[in-house]
Amino acid sequence: MSSLFGLLIPWMTRDAIDGLFAPDGSERLARAVSWMLLFAALHGSFRYLSRRGLLVTARKVELALRRDVFAHVIRLPLSFFRATPTGDVMSRMTNDVSAVWLFLGPGVLTLVGTVISYLLALTFMLRISPLLTMVSLVLAPAVILLSREYGRRFHRLYRKVQEALAAMNATLQENISGIRLVKAYGLEEKEETRFAANCDGYYRQNVSVSKNSAVFHGAIGFLAGSGTALVLLLGGWLVIRGRLTLGGFVAFNAYLAMLSFPTMALGWVINLVQRGGSAMGRINEFMRLPVEPSLMKAQSSQAPEASLEDTPAPECAKEDAKEGRPALEFRDLSFAYGDGGRGGDVLRGITFSVNPGEVVGLVGQTGSGKSTLLSLVLRLGPVPAGAVFLEGRDVNSIPLAELRRSVSLVAQDPFLFSDTVLANICFGLPSGDAESARRAAGHARILAEIDEMPEGFRTVIGERGISLSGGQKQRATIARALCASPRVLLLDDALSSVDVETEREIFREILSLRGERTILFSTHRLASLSHCDRILVLSGGAIVEEGTHDELLSLRGTYFDLYSRQMLSMELEESS
Amino acid sequence: MSDGHEFYFLEDRVEAQAVDLRLLRRLLAYLRPHKALIALALLGLALGTACQLAGPYLIKVIIDRHITAGLFPGMPRWVAIYLLSLAGAMGFLYVQMLTVSVIGQRVILAIRREMFSRLERLPVSFFDRTPTGRLMTRLTSDVEALQELISSGLVSTVGDVTVLLGIAAILLFMNPALALVTFAVLPVLVLFVEVLKKFIREANREMRRKLARMNAFLQEHVSGVTVVKTFVQEGKSDARFETLNREYASESIRLTNYYSLYFPGVELFSSVAVALLLWRGGGQVISGAVTFGTLVAFLEYAQKFFNPIKDMSDKYNILQSALASCERIFHILDMEPAPEYGPARPAEREESGDAGPPEAVQVSVPGTPPAPRADSTEGDEPRPAIEFRDVWFSYDGPRGDARHGGEPVLRGVSFTILEGEMGAIVGATGAGKTTILSLLCRFYEISRGRILLFGRDIREYPGDELRRSLSLVLQDPFLFPGSIRENVAAGGPRVERALSAAGVAGIAGSWEEGLDTQVGERGGRLSVGQRQIVAFARALARDPRVLLLDEATSSVDPVTEHDIRKALLNILSGRTSLVVAHRLSTILSADRIIVLHKGKVRETGTHAELMEAGGIYRRLYLLQFDG
Hints:
The complex is a heterodimer of chains A (576) and B (627).
Chain A: H1 2-20, H2 25-73, H3 78-83, H4 86-128, H5 130-137, H6 140-177, H7 179-184, H8 188-240, H9 246-288, H10 297-300, H11 314-319, E1 328-335, E2 347-354, E3 359-363, H12 370-377, E4 388-390, E5 393-394, H13 400-406, E6 407-410, H14 421-425, H15 434-443, H16 447-452, H17 470-483, E7 488-492, H18 500-512, E8 518-522, E9 534-539, E10 542-547, H19 549-555, H20 558-574
Parallel strand pairs in A: 3-8, 3-9, 6-7, 7-8
Antiparallel strand pairs in A: 1-2, 1-4, 4-5, 9-10
Chain B: H1 2-11, H2 21-31, H3 35-67, H4 75-120, H5 124-129, H6 132-174, H7 176-183, H8 186-223, H9 225-230, H10 234-287, H11 292-310, H12 312-333, H13 350-364, E1 384-393, H14 402-405, E2 410-418, E3 422-426, H15 433-440, E4 448-453, E5 456-457, H16 465-469, E6 470-473, H17 484-489, H18 495-501, H19 504-508, H20 528-540, E7 546-550, H21 558-572, E8 576-580, H22 584-588, E9 592-597, E10 600-605, H23 607-613, H24 616-625
Parallel strand pairs in B: 3-8, 3-9, 6-7, 7-8
Antiparallel strand pairs in B: 1-2, 1-4, 4-5, 9-10
C-alpha cells in the first residue's frame, strides 16, 4: 500500500505540471497539490505501518530463535562444551542470530519493497509512455548484472577481509597470552613486525574492498544517470513532437529516480540473504545435536526390567531387603574419556557401595580418577549400563532431572554467577528462599561474612559485583548444594581453599545432618577423614585400600604413605 | 591501580559524554601525515559535488531552451554535457571514496600498530589484572569503530554539509523566493529530527546495554554449564534468559518503532516541500515569473536536499560511539610503558660504576660463548653471576586489592649464584619460587633491595640487554603457532646446535614433517613433554649467559620423562643457571640449593649438606621424593 501511495505522488506531479499549461491552470494545480499532500500523508502512514509490522515480526522471530537456541544448547551434553570453544558457542548464539534477524527484518522489507516498487512503477511508467519505458529499461539488466557480479565479488572479498582479521586477532591473542615469553626473549620488535605484516594484509584486503566498492558505486551511479540522460533526450524529443506532456515527462523522470535506489539495494539484499542463510545453517548445526537424554534408552534396553523403574536390578534384589538397599552402588565400573584416548581408562573395575546416611571419604593423588567417579553419579558423562546405582536403580534408568535433584555435586573449582548471594545459594531451588539460604549459609560457615557484606544476601557477587576469596567461593558453593537438600551429597575436594579449622567446623555441621544425607567426598586433607565411616583409597583409577582411618593406617600401605607425608608437610607448614 | 580502576569504569560506558574537542584534536594529529591524500579527497569531493549539483541545472537549461521552446536541434549537445557532468561526478566520487577509505585505513593501521607496540611494553602486572577479552576488544571493536568514524562518518559528514550548502546557494541564486518556499519545511523537519534523534539515541543506548547484559548471561551460562546441569536448573535458566531476551527485544522494537517513524517522516516532509514548491512555483510558472525548467530543477534539488538530512541521526550515533572508543584507545596509548623500557637508571654506586664499562664491551659482542665453569683466567675466585640482596616484593593485587596487595611474597631474600654454577630453588607451593625468576627478568619492580646480574643492578641494564643475557623457560611452555623450527628460531640464531643439544632432533623423527611440523594453537599438537623439550631448545638458541628454568610439575609418560631429564642435564651443564626444581635428578645435580619457605631463604647448600643439617630441606625431600 505504501508503495502505491508513494508512487502516486509523481503521478500527481504530472497532473499539476500539465495543469500549468491548461487554461484552468491554477485550479488543476491546487487540486493536484492537495491530492499530492494526501498521498504523501497516506504513503507515510502506510510506510510506517508496513515497516513496523515487518520489522517487529522479525524481532519476534529473533526473540523466539534466540530462546530456542539457548534452551537447546544448555541441554547439550558436557562433552559438547568440552569440545567446542566458548567463543564459537557464543558467536552462534549472538552474531548468527543477529544475522538471521537482519535477513528477516531489513532484508525481507527491502526485498518486498523493491519488488512492489518495481511492479507499480513500471505500470505507471508504461501508462505515461511505453516507448520511454522500454528505452529506460535498456540499462536495467546491466545494473542487475553489475550488482550480482559485484555482490559475488564482495562476498569473496569480505571473506578474505575476515581471514586477514582473524590472522591479526590470532597474533594479538597469542601475544597477550604469551606476554611473558615475548618479554623474556625480547621478541617485542619481532612480534611488532609480525603484527605489522598482519595489519598490512588486513589493510590491503580492505583497500581492495574499497577499490571495488568505489568502482561499483561509480558505475551504478553512471548507469542510472545514463538512463536519465537517455530519457531526457528521447523524452524531450517526444515532448517537442507533442507525443508526451511535460508533466508526464517530469513524472517519468521521478519514477526512474525512485527505481534507482531499490536497484542498487538489490546487491545489499542478496548479501543479507546469503549471510542469513549461512548463519541459519550454523545455528542448525547446533540444533541438530542431540540433547542429554533424560533416560538412557539404548543402554537400559539391554536389561528388560529397566523400563519398570521401581524394579531393582536382579542381583540387588536377592541379597537386600528394600530398606537395606545401598544409597549408592558401583559395580565393576570402568570408564575412559571418549575424546582423548591417550589417557586410557580413567576408572578400572570400581566396586563399592555407600549405605544411606553413611559418610565415605575418597582419597588418592591428583589424576587418580576421583572427580570422574563423582561426576558419573550425576551422569555428567556416558555411564555404562549396570555399573552405577542410586538407591538400587541404575542411574541410566532414572530421569535426569530426578537423578540430579537427588544428588548434589560440589565441584573442585567453585563457579558462581554474577548475581546476588541469595540467588546463588538458592540456585537449586525454584525461587529465592531467604530462610533456607540462611540455614545453608550457616552450615557452610559463610553466614557471618554474608551478613557483613554491604547488602547482605542481596549483595551482587562475581564479575559485576564484589569478588570473593577462593575460600568464600567454595563455602558459597557448599551452601548452594546444601540448600538444594539432596539425599546424596558429593564433595569433590570442595574445601581445598578453606582453612583447616573452618573445614572442621563445616564437616561438623554437615555431619550433624548425617541421618538425612549420604555423603561421598574426596579430599586431599587426610585430617578431615577422621569423621568418615569409611575411607576408600583410589590409585590409578582403581580402589586399592578400603577401611576406617585406623584400619588403613595399620595396613601401612598407600594410605599410610599419604598420611605420613601430610603429617610432614603440616609440620613444615608450622615451622615458619 | 587507580588507572586500572578507571579502565574498568570506561568499559561500561557505551558513548562519550559529549563531543570532546581534545579528543578530536588528538585524532586529527593522525591525519596530518596524509595531507596530500586529504587534499585529493577534498578536491574529489568538491568537484564531485559540483558535477552532481550541475545535473539539475543542466536539465533546467535543456527544458527551457529546447523542450518548452520546441527546439530539438542542439538538445543532444546539452544531453551530452549532462552525461559528461555525470561521468565527472562519478569519477570524482570514485577518487573521493577511494582516497577517503585509504586515509581511514592508514590512520587505523598506524593506531593499531602503535597500540600493539605499547601493549607489548606494558608491565606484566597490567596483563595479570586485565582480562584478555577486554584487551582484544580494545584492539578490535574499538579500532573498527574509529575506522568507521574516519572513513564514513567524518568525510561523508563534510560531504553532506557541502551538498546542503551548495544546494542552498544554487536555489537562492536561481530564485530566492522559491528557495525560501523550499526551506519552509526545514524548521519543522529539524525539530522532528532532533526530537526523534533524542529518543533514538536513548533507545539505542538502552538496547546496547540490554544486549550486553544478555550476552554476559549467555557467556556465564556457557562457562558455568556444569553448575546449571548439576542443579537441574535448565528450566530456570531458560526463564531468566527469556526475561533478558524479552527486555532486549522490547528495546529493539522500541528502536524499530522510532526508525519506522523517522524515515517515512522525513520523506513526508520532503513530499510536503515538493507539493509546496509545485503550488508556489506552479503559480509563478503560470504567471510567467519562473521558467518551467527552473521549477523542474527546484524539484530535483529538493529531493537531493533531504537525503543528507535523513542520515543525520545515524551519523550522530556513529560519531558518539566512535568517540567513546577513541577515548578508550587513547587511554591505552597513554599508559606508561614498564620501567624496563625506559632509559637505564644511572649508576648510583661506585661498584657498579666500576664494573660498567668492561661489562658493556663483553655483552655487545654477539655470540660470546658462555663463561665456562670456574673461569681460571679471571683468577681463582669465580665472580658472582646472580645476586639477590635483601629483596622484598609484593604483587599489586588486581584493582589494588588490599587482601593480596598487602602480603609480601618475598621478604628479605638474599642469595648468590656464582658464574658457571647451577642454582636450584626448592620449596613448597606458594613459597615464591617462580617470583624470583620473574623478578630477575624484571617483569615486576621490587619494593626493596637489589638484584644484581654479573655485578650490575638489573635496573642499570639499558634497553633489552638484560633480557638478552637471560633465557627463560616457563613451567607451561608457550609455543607460537608455526613450525617447530620457527619456534626454536624465535629464541636466537643458534638453531641447529640448540635442536641437537635439547634432543629435539631425537623426537622429531616421530613426526611426519620432522622439524617443519606445525605445533598448532598454543603448541596443542605436541604433548606437554614435547612442548617442554622444544622450549628448552628455544632457550638454548640464543646461547644465553644465564638460563632460567621453571621446571614443570606436570607428570609425563616415562619415555618423555627420560628425554626431558637427558635434555635438561645436557643444557644445564657448564652454564650459569637458576632452576625452580621439582625433579630429584635436577636438584641433585645443583651446585647450590636455595630453600625458600614462605618468602624467605631458610637454608642454602648442596644436597648432602642440607640433608645433614636436617632442616626444612630434609623434610621437603622426604615429602616429595621419598617413596
